[in-house]
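sorry for the late reply, my laptop died twice this morning and i had to redo everyting from scratch. anyway the thing you sent over, i finally got around to it. pasting the sequence first so we're on the same page, its 102 residues, then the predicted structure underneath. double check i copied it right bc i was rushing
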Amino acid sequence: QKLYNNILTRIKTQLVNLKSKGFLTHPDNNFFILIRQIEMSFTKHANSQNVFEDTIDDFFKCNYLIPFPCIEHKNDMVEYIFTTYIIMRMRQYTYFSNHQLL
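ok and here's the structure:
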């Protein structure tokens, strides 16, 4: 378990470094569209008290079909993508909002 956590932490660190340096690109057009749709829903509800739930609700109200090549893993992967992306955006939004107050 400790080894797994270390590997996961290292992978997350690499992702943050790529994002920070501007090297992060979308590997798949469908993935890019999914992230863009989540981002559009997030920006609508960034100031909401229930930003996480409101973002997800808004996304699914738009009836966007989520393309995913593997039916077996679709639910788990989409859930992971949603939670990871929205949590990351909430942290970024909070960080930048707090710095603007200073």
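Residues 26-101 form one domain.
thats about all i looked at so far, will dig more tmrw
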